[in-house]
Batch of 3 targets.
Target 1
Amino acid sequence: MAKHDPNEAPPPYYSVGLHTQPPLKTYEEVVYGVGPGLTPYTHPHYIPQYTPPVVAPQVTRSSAPPSSRSKRRCCGSNAQCYGGSGGTLLVLGLLALAIWLGVRYGTRLVTTAILYNKHDTVENEDPSLPVPDTCPNNTVQCDAIRDCQLGTDETNCVRFDKNRGLQVKTAPESSFLPVCYQNWDQSYADQTCAQLGFRRSYDTKAIRTQQSGPGLTLNSRSSSFIQGQVHVSSSCPNQEIVSLQCVDCGRQQSTSRIIGGSIAKTGQWPWQLSLHYRGSHVCGGVLITPDFVVTAAHCFQRSNPSTLLASNWRVYGGVVSLNNLPQPYLVKKIILHENYDTKTNDLDVAVLKLKSPVAFNDKVQPACLPAFDQQFRPGYKCWTSGFGTTNAGSNAVSNDLMEVTVDIIGTQSCNSRAVYGGSVTRNMLCAGDLNGGKDSCQGDSGGPLMCQDRNRWYLVGITSWGRGCGLRNKPGVYTNVKSVLPWIYSTMQQETL
């Protein structure tokens, strides 16, 4: 892969380029800024190819008065001006302070300044960037009382098991319990799905549980949160619990494909999205609801604030060729995981909120989010897709949506000395072929790793990083969606409160 520009920031991974032989070019480590207190990344990163900003030429007109926005100021005899040597000393002092802060606190301070400072210029240009929540000291989680300013105390109170069984955590119990089906109806279903960031429910029914034990019985409609409408019961009547599905997901319109890597057909991966920055494809994304997209955090470079502005992005769905783009979806807000680590690429996930809901059709459908207890073990055959380059070291993305089958690889194997030597965290998973030849590549970052279970496709991973393309013992590394599932639901819920 080509050497990365040290001035560019974090990394995407790439698209599914099938490599039948190891590529001629191997990877090179990326080092962002060599200097006091700065350390190189512990593993290779793949960066998005952003189009350079257009800089207007400067025109000097001697007859025109200086603009009020000019860097140079003119002062009358009575004006106080901070220029000359005093201004230079001030600038040098501020520069020295900035260097000291950089050495002392590293990239996390810069990240905080960009994302969370209410008075930052980026924040003023685009108020969609997140700010930290504030909570009183006596906050109680999941008590159906919104104590925190952004409501984070009432998120992460709902989850689903692999049978779509609804589980809720309440303040008295502090653990997740199934919801009893008795007195459950469509209005409860719609309200619960809306609480999670979905517009309404898709399907709900009763399922019998084989396990005896406590459950949550409905007792009131007085709260806007499902955790405030239930109380703990010793068991569920008839052992019937609620099964709830908030969106019809993971359905393909086209299923014919060639195993091992090929051009995808229309409708094969209807949740695959192409994310364009200032008119060019940069990353992939995955549609999960009519309003929300999941992608990789590294697609939005913290060192380049313009990539954090929602107005610079367009999202295209139902696309199998970049030469034939439909009308784009506009982005309202970009939300990066607050603990995303640019050095290790841990928690490499972002959520985009769209300005208007997507209309589902044969070409555009959402992928399913996995259940908290759903297992896709090593050896499980899955797929990954994207518009990334099919040649390692190339800056050109593929015009066609490519697909390839990959196997889940156990973290222990992936962390062995011969593979990634401990760089794979518990929030990541590996997929590919340790013999090489099947992999993602540059330009696929943020795209899906998909596994099928009971005729539906689940978003198991988000394309994140790797070393080279299709190299032996260097498989693709993906953000483990199960690990970030609570954050995804919490983020969607906060955006709909």
Target 2
Amino acid sequence: MPLFAKNLLALPPRTKGVLAVTAVAILAIVFFMLKLATAPSYSLLSSGLDPAQTGKITAALDSQGIAYELRNNGTALAVNKAQVPQARIALASQGVSVNESGSQPGYELLDQTKLGTSQFQQQVTYQRALEGELARTINGVEGVSGASVQLVLPEDTLFASEQSPATASVMMQNTADTLQPGAIRGIAQLTASSVKGLKSGNVTITDGSGQLLWPQGDGSAGATAGATKQATEASFSRQLESKVNAMLASTLGPGKAQVQVSADMNVDKTNLKQLTYGKTGVPTKSTSDVEKLRGSGATTGGTAGTGSNVPTYSNGSGSGSGNSNYDHTVKTTEQAVNKEIKTTDVAPGAINKLSVALLVDKSVPAATLNSLKQTVAAAAGIQPSRGDTIVASQMAFAKPATPKTGPVPTTLLGPLKWVGLGIAALLFVFFMARGLRKREAESLGTPAWLKQIEEPISLAQLEQSTVAMAPSGLPPRVPDASLHQLDQLMEREPERVAAQVRQWMAAD
């Protein structure tokens, strides 16, 4: 028997119990840590599944040996994070389609049509499929997330006057300031062009806050009044702040300066007409009118009045004769003046006024503040003639709070598990070896029964309950109860008794 096993068996029952409990606890910890380390990490692949499709999905995953987990009463599917691509390929190869988390199913609904389906059910299925395809297309627009589409398709009627128009509603989870200019108009036109008989004016688009984006305005950035004007100003201010703050952080370092921008923008779309006349004209038409008068001479009877009636005045008057020849020409020239009419559509988004606040930490030298103010004014596009203002202040910034220790990253969880397992094993071996060394170093006292044995005697004589007679004619001795204990000790621990005897012999 090995020495380790002999020493372990020689320990007291209490020590053996403690060691047994410790070993079981360590084994339980090791088992738990191994199970935790080897447990697969699941990633949500799809939600909102049809329970009728769950069996096909699980069968396709089982055929490829992919670990999966059903959640939310079978309506959500999670697979091993390391096997997500294989799961998608396996489902696609089996003809099973799962929609992304939170999106609407598309034309794959038409593949699930059963024999005997009524016309009403087919129409509803087609409408659901069309809504899903539109939602997927709109989600592909930059800045759009979580779009859902609802359609109202009219029923065919005999009379066109009784036909109700088709309508559509688009709900987006994002806000309007995340969209590019003109994106809302594009979404409305895309939706209207995808549904028969749907006009863009019958499309309603709202964002995650419930704000109406269409048909109010033309869909360009800042084209609507009220909240859209505020959203446009907020988006412009954030972009300008991020640009200037990035410049300050790269120059002064993080946490040294901060910029806040408040923009007043004109979001009204206007039409400007301009009329311009030339300085000189160009002759385009010339006309002339000639007036002529011809006649022969005649005797005149004097002029009318008192001169010819009074005798004294009539002496000077006489008669005359002659021919008349009168010519008069009138010329008319029309002048054409250059005229220019210019029509301009002024796009919305012009800046009426810009206000910039610059806050600098006390650690920045005061001599740098003036040059920093000028730099920020140039970067922000401050124009004093437009009424723009910039205010710079310097004060002590609050010290950032020490971040609390967050959760352990999942990438380090695996190595930490194995490190903890190794430390636990080393501690177990250390304390076991230490306990055994202490037991080996203990010195055993001389038993009283060994002092009572003066010469070798047989075991049969020790077991006798009567008075034993010693050889060589010695007087009888009364048997001691310790002899029985000696017999039991020798049977139970012969090696220990032999070691003690060898120690006494070496001492002599």
Target 3
Amino acid sequence: MTNSITTHGIAQNQAIYIGSDEDILEAVKVSIASKYSLEAVSEVPHVWPEDVSLALLEFDGDVDVALERINSVLTLGKGVSLYVLLKRKNVDFIIEANHQGVQGFIECPGEVLHILSILHMQDRRRQGKNGNVSSFFSLKGGVGCTALATNLASHLTELTDGRTVLVDLNMPLGDTSLYLNMENQRLYSLTDFVYNLNRFDENLIYKSLSRHESGLYVLSLPSEVSELDNLNGELIKTIIHSLRRYYDHVVIDCASDLSDLTLSCLDESDNIVLVAEPSLSSFRAVNTAIKLTQTLGYLKDSLKLVLNRSASQQDEMLEEMVKDMDVDTVVRVSNDYRAFNDSLKEGRLLKDSHADSIANFQLHSLANLLHNGASLPEMEAQAENVKRSKQNRWWPVLKQRMFKRMGEPKTNGSLNEKSVVS
């Protein structure tokens, strides 16, 4: 991360904030700074600004005024995405505003720092895509796919407010339950899921799947290897389609092979996360995987290369090999063996056992990249903005004033330090 990266330099979209609450305005600025430059006005402008693609409107309880403003925004700013910031809940207002054409509603203060995630998921749903699917894959075993997938899924759980599921397809013997310290539990498995596939609705699926203490849902491999014989590529696709209907993010830990099951996962993935370690054999395996994705016609934008166990001083030849790979997004996760090993021994996630480690921060940023669709410079700028904001004098005052005025307890979904990139 460098000081030369600025929010202004990378913001490509224009947004307008309509309201007068300075505390919420400051929080919104921090939350969307990586993707939007924000103009604040107290009233709907008579002449709509050019190039504004997003409008955020305060609702403080005055239904008539808010509906009038909504009508004006949607009339003047044709095609603009309008979201309402709910300082107070009013079911009748929400129903009427939704009928008028409001894209979504953001609760204040609880969801303010997750605006980008909310916008991204709403956009996907309008396109009929529902939840994101990210598959962690390597043709070479032992590079840390399971550790990365498990710990990253825990960060996505926070980003999606508990609507993330981790699927273990690292056949025949997956280790996600080991990393989650759930190996002694009776876990809901893939074969259980298939058996109940036609019975699922939104209530049943959340009650059926195993759940880690962090809130992460888990779909594990069956304990009997013979049960895997009934699984095939089409059935795997059906499972993924079903999961993405109910979950905002599906994380899959794939096997290190090119079986029909693995290829079916990659076919359904929005993000194909190729994991490598800094070695010639690992890079050769990744290069083979990249060529495979080109042959199969996968979108290049879906490919992300994660260089795991990355050292500050890499071999120059290896660095040149990374640059020569035909992939646009390269993410590095630091070589922190002690932190990962300690978390595994303790049966705790990295964010709980070593929250201040560089590797944990990098995984948090990667989770934002996969879920929010932010580019790497945007991730860095967002993290830098939040860091600066936490140091600014308005940040602690903002938190206390918002909680006091809204009368909301400091829960996991509230605006607190845990919600912020640290």
